[in-house]
Amino acid sequence: MIMTVDEQIFGFNKYAFAAATLLTIFWWNSRVAWESITVYPPNGLQLETCRGLPFFPSISRKFVPNVFIRDVLINEALHRWSARYYLALMVNPGDEYELLVAFKETLPHFPILLEVYQGVQECLKLGHIPHDIFQGRTSI
Questions:
Q1: Its pathway (predicted)?
Q2: Which of 46, 59, 72, 107 is the most exposed place for a label (fewest CB within 10 A)?
């Protein structure tokens, strides 16, 4: 099949070029830009994930009330031949306990998790946010 100049863009079929462009846009929109955990001492915690392009972000938030939080912990999981650490919230919204994983997509290293863990524990224990505690946030 012979293509005319109108059917080609940079030497490629214009439909293949459009499909590749749409796949690239979809891939960029599904990438995680950053994740955060925010403590609201009298109320609870909020887990937040931002996906997509900087000028068109898609942010998902999950708020966990303080009355449902039983503990915040750093857990270890085995993945293939290595161990990975993750920050989890043990919640009890009903009859069963459940683990909500913070930083599920970015999976920061242990020293960063430890710093965020200590900050969250201090905020929950004191009931207010001290001046030297920051919002726990990781990005790729």
A1: Glycolipid biosynthesis; glycosylphosphatidylinositol-anchor biosynthesis
A2: 59
